[in-house]
Amino acid sequence: MRLLAPQHPFRRRLVGRLPAATALAAALFLGACSSPGTTPRQERLRPFAPQQFAKTDLDRFAEAHQHRVFVSLRRLAEKLYRRNPREWRKSGAPSMDEALARIFEVEHGWRLEELGNRRDIDALQLAFVPEYQGDRVAAFVVGLASMVQSAFGDKVEFYLLDDLNAQRIYNAARNVEIAAWKLASARDADGRPLLLSNEMGEVANLSFEREFGRIIGQLEVLSDVIEVKTERTVTRVVQSMATAVFLPVR
Question: Is position 125 within any domain?
Fold first, then answer.
């Protein structure tokens, strides 16, 4: 099925010609079809938009938190490219901005050819393979972003009948923690960091740690709210970072 973005002209013509009840159903169907390659955006619906009638407070809350997570992911990608400019040059992009746009503004289903079309944890782990010659920042960020999207059911809009899973979103938060630890600790054969991030010295740069903290916090809060709303208990996991394994989000 070819996926239609909410602003697609066919959607507007279709909804405009149908009776109210049918139009609402069509709007919900077309809105719920969302590409996993689309970065979630915070676009407020008009008060009289038909989709508003099928959104709960939890749906709007989830969309807001998902949007904030992806704002942080983009900031994280930019910080990594600035500290590791050799990585965006590996991608063949003419500039850092083009490299960022390629990750966050192109419909690719979070599957890049140079990553072997891997996504989720499979893509993320490439960033920590010492022999990998490609863009490590792209592997790291695409892996994180697609992992988060998988936890959200690969949706960018949520409606009354959508089932958000608190356990998967909680697991995504733990996976971000593990990824942050690996980023700080992964070294090549000569003991050099595979990717530069936080910097300790006379003036410490902990901006990466703060960005990861924002992402983890957003996911944890959303998981807690969904747990209460759905009355489905989340299983908390405690792992040692040195031996931690990524948790399932599907």
Answer: yes
